């Protein structure tokens, strides 16, 4: 043992040894990713992988002695074998094969006894039970976040003396001194100037309210960024780029762990309440996926299989969007269209069930007190007209232009943050952006209110009783037909609101570029929708006034008669919101479904589809990547996009390693290498696995073995059998030849050998190789020529080659 330890010390083998896994998290947090600077020391306090090793002190090798001198200790699974290192890709094929073997074993045993049959039924039912728990937990957390954020947002402007836990709206609900015209004013609600200087009028009162608004915003932002920095660096950002990467098979420990869930939930409330130009919808997907990952550990089927766990995470993402927008069907389609890498039919059903339970839970909590799942639910009753497709398409063009502009500028700013000193001071950056946002936001009532309330105001279809400035029209009519108000000339309030909304639009466009990507939870759905909704409302009011004053024009007189309600500005706001969100994210089908679920009517699907497709076409013409794909590439995550076609005429031999003039491929032989030889190879290389060949001369392929499995198996053998020494021969064959007496016992490691690795010939076109990697989720593929092993192609090599063919920096792929 001393010689073995010395060999490890001399060759730096400790970094890859099994003991080094003791400090990493177990499968409980097998996904967690650095959202900012990758903190490799970030681990949850969970039992080590080798918690079972050495527990059975009486183990003597299972009858393996010097008589047959073959140590085959892998008849029973060793803890850690078959698992993955951090920042590595899972083997989808192996995981699915293991799940089929497990299911086959359970099915066969179910015929033997009643208890085994019950176990089989519970195993089949466990997936649905897990979906139920995910829906309940994510819906409950979403309700808690909504209620807390609403209260803390109002806290910046005042407090309820009748009960500090009431927000502004709830405070005035039960008041006997509130009028309908001023329903937001009641004696129980006091602004900070009323509490501090006992008056709400005059310049000094305005300054006091201004100061308290900025102070609260800075306090909330400081708490949010501090908690993220100290306790859970992974809790920043929206989380969707990392979740897409994890669902593609990448391992990021801690990203979906307990601490990330707790800190993300708390800091999301603080970040939204600070008034920054961000939303909670994207981070809610991250929160739901954290719930899914944590609950997976209650079920062996999902705890021990990474591919099955990713099916659960796809369903959790659907539940997250369901509670974010109150759109269960849209959530399922979002998971399918935008984030999921592998989405079988069974996952579709379970995603639908999880989204349904999550929406029902949120509806039961009723966080907004209006029996709706979102604050900006609206219903329009006026039909749209064919001519209006022209302004709808114009909104789509605006959304595409805004999306392309935002992606380019935001990525440039985030790259500057990563490559300069700016990234070293996240707290200062957040406080500066918060201060600028709060100082510019307070004078304008549309920037002072929360973004969700602003969108609700913009979507609103004006009625007779609306007291908003956006509904300050001159009433020049005697009756209204069917309860619908005719188009009316705009009053002073509408013109004032138009100017304020124009200023709000400029502020939102600029400040969102610098806000998204800071080290706090920040979603992009709501700010993008706000930009589009403002532009849409401005265009809608313009069209409404044009139709009122110029009814004789040919484009209006055929369908817009005198005294009719022809134009609905709120509909334009909704179409604009969909266009801008589509331009930024490149969503299409799921976006349209989410928007019509918000409005409660199918009548406006065509305008939404026209705007969404136009915005995607325009944005794609200016840049192929959506915001999430752009951030994946910026951070160097190994994500192989399934939507992009590989159209270059290169061959496998052009990409494989080793290249010409490179050192020969590092291989293991099936029956001629000692433990010391293998240890030397492991300590001198950083490869994730090694091909096994018959001999170095023949180079005939036998299989492929993973580095992690080798390390764990060798160390486990040394612990359980004293006779294993550095000169012991390792066999990957089924049978070993007889050995002379008094030679050290051999190690038989055939059970950790993949006997069917994927292989291609050296003349295989790379477009086929790329398709194989995409559709099968491979980690590596071996290259042969006439049956002889030539080289290896890894997922990283494929990503580098794709980047090189696209004239991008191939070294931007950071992870193996």
Provide structural commentary.
- Interacts with NEDD4 and NEDD4L.
- Residues 12-25 have a biased composition (Low complexity).
- It is a multi-pass membrane protein.
- Residues 1-26 are annotated as: Disordered.
- It is found in: Cell membrane; Endosome membrane; Golgi apparatus membrane; Membrane.
- The chain is mainly alpha-helical and 816 residues long.
- It folds into 3 domains: 132-363, Orthogonal Bundle (Clc chloride channel); 388-474 and 500-629, Clc chloride channel (Orthogonal Bundle), CATH 1.10.3080.10; 650-804, CBS-domain (Roll), CATH 3.10.580.20.
- 52% of the residues lie in helices and 6% in strands.
- It has 29 helices and 12 strands.
- The strands form 4 sheets. A 4-stranded mixed beta sheet has the order 1-9-8-5. A 3-stranded mixed beta sheet has the order 4-6-7. Strands 10-11-12 form a 3-stranded mixed beta sheet.
- A hairpin with a 2-residue loop joins strand 11 and strand 12.
- Helix 3 (114-155) crosses helix 13 (345-365) and helix 15 runs antiparallel to helix 18 (492-515).
- The longest helix has 42 residues, at 114-155.
- The chain is elongated.
- The model is unreliable at 1-74 and 478-483 (pLDDT under 50).
């Amino acid at each position: 043992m001393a010689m073995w330890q010395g060999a490890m010390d001399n060759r730096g083998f400790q970094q890859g040894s099994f003991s080094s896994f003791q400090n990493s998290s177990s499968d409980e947090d097998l996904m967690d990713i650095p959202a900012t600077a990758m903190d490799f020391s970030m681990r949850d306090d969970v039992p080590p992988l080798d918690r079972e090793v050495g527990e059975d002190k009486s183990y003597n090798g299972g009858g393996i002695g010097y008589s047959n001198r073959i140590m085959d200790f892998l008849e029973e699974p060793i803890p850690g074998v078959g698992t993955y290192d951090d920042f590595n890709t899972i083997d989808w094929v192996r995981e699915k094969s293991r799940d089929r073997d497990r299911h086959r074993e359970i099915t066969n045993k179910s015929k033997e006894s009643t208890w085994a049959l019950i176990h089989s039924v519970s195993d089949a039912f466990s997936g649905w039970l897990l979906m139920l728990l995910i829906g309940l937990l994510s819906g409950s957390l979403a309700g808690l976040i909504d209620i807390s954020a609403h209260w803390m947002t109002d806290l910046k402007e005042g407090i309820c003396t009748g009960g500090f836990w009431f927000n502004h709206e709830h405070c005035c609900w039960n008041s006997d001194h509130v009028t309908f015209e001023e329903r937001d004013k009641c004696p129980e609600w006091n602004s900070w100037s009323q509490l501090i200087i006992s008056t709400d009028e005059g310049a000094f009162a305005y300054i006091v309210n201004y100061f308290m608004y900025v102070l609260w915003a800075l306090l909330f932002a400081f708490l949010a960024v501090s908690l993220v920095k100290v306790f859970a660096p992974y809790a920043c950002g929206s989380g969707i780029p990392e979740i897409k990467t994890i669902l593609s098979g990448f391992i990021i420990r801690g990203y979906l762990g307990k601490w990330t869930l707790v800190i993300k939930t708390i800091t999301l409330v603080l970040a939204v309440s600070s008034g920054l130009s961000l939303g909670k919808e994207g981070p809610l997907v991250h929160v739901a996926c954290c719930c899914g990952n944590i609950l997976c550990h209650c079920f062996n089927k999902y705890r021990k299989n990474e591919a099955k766990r990713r099916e659960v995470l796809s369903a959790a993402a659907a539940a997250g969007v369901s509670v974010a927008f109150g759109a269960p069907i849209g959530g399922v389609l979002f998971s399918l269209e935008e984030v999921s890498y592998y989405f079988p039919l069974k996952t579709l059903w379970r995603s639908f069930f999880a989204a349904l339970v999550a929406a029902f839970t949120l509806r039961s909590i009723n966080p907004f007190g209006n029996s709706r799942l979102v604050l900006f639910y609206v219903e329009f009753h006026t039909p749209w007209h064919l001519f209006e497709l022209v302004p709808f398409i114009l909104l789509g063009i605006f959304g595409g232009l805004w999306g392309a502009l935002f992606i380019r500028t935001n990525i440039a700013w985030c790259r500057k943050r990563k490559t300069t000193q700016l990234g070293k001071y996240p707290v200062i950056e957040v406080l500066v952006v918060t201060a600028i946002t709060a100082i510019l936001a307070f004078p304008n009532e549309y920037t002072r209110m929360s973004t969700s309330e602003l969108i609700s105001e913009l979507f609103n279809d004006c009625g007779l009783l609306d007291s908003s400035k956006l509904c300050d029209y001159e009433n020049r009519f005697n009756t209204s037909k069917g309860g619908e108000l005719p188009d009316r000339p705009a009053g002073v309030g509408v013109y004032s609101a138009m100017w304020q909304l124009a200023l709000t639009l400029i502020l939102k466009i600029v400040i969102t570029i610098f806000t998204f990507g800071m080290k706090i939870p920040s979603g992009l759905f709501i700010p993008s929708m706000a930009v589009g909704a403002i532009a849409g409302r401005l265009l809608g009011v313009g069209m409404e006034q044009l139709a009122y004053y110029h009814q004789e024009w040919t484009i209006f007189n055929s369908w817009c008669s005198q005294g009719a309600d022809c134009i609905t500005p709120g509909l334009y706001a909704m179409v604009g919101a969909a266009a801008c969100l589509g331009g930024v994210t490149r969503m299409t089908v799921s976006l349209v479904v989410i928007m019509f679920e918000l409005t409660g009517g199918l009548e406006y699907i065509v305008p939404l589809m026209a705007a969404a497709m136009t915005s995607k076409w325009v944005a794609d013409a200016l840049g192929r990547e959506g915001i999430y794909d752009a951030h994946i590439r910026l951070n160097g995550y190994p994500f192989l996009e399934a939507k992009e076609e590989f159209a270059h005429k290169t061959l496998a031999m052009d990409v494989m390693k080793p290249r010409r003039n490179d050192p020969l491929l590092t291989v293991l032989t099936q029956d001629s290498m000692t433990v010391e030889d293998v240890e030397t190879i492991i300590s001198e290389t950083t490869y994730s696995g090694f091909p096994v060949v018959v001999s170095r001369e023949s180079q005939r392929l036998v299989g492929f073995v993973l580095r992690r499995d080798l390390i764990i198996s060798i160390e486990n053998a040394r612990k359980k059998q004293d006779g294993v020494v550095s000169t012991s021969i390792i066999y990957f064959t089924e049978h070993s030849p007889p050995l002379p007496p008094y030679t050290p016992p051999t190690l038989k490691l055939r059970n950790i050998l993949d006997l069917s690795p994927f292989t291609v010939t050296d003349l295989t076109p790379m477009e086929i190789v790329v398709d194989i990697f995409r559709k099968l989720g491979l980690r590596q593929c071996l290259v042969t020529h006439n049956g002889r092993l030539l080289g290896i192609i890894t997922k990283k090599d494929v990503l580098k080659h794709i980047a090189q063919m696209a004239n991008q920096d191939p070294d931007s792929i950071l992870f193996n």
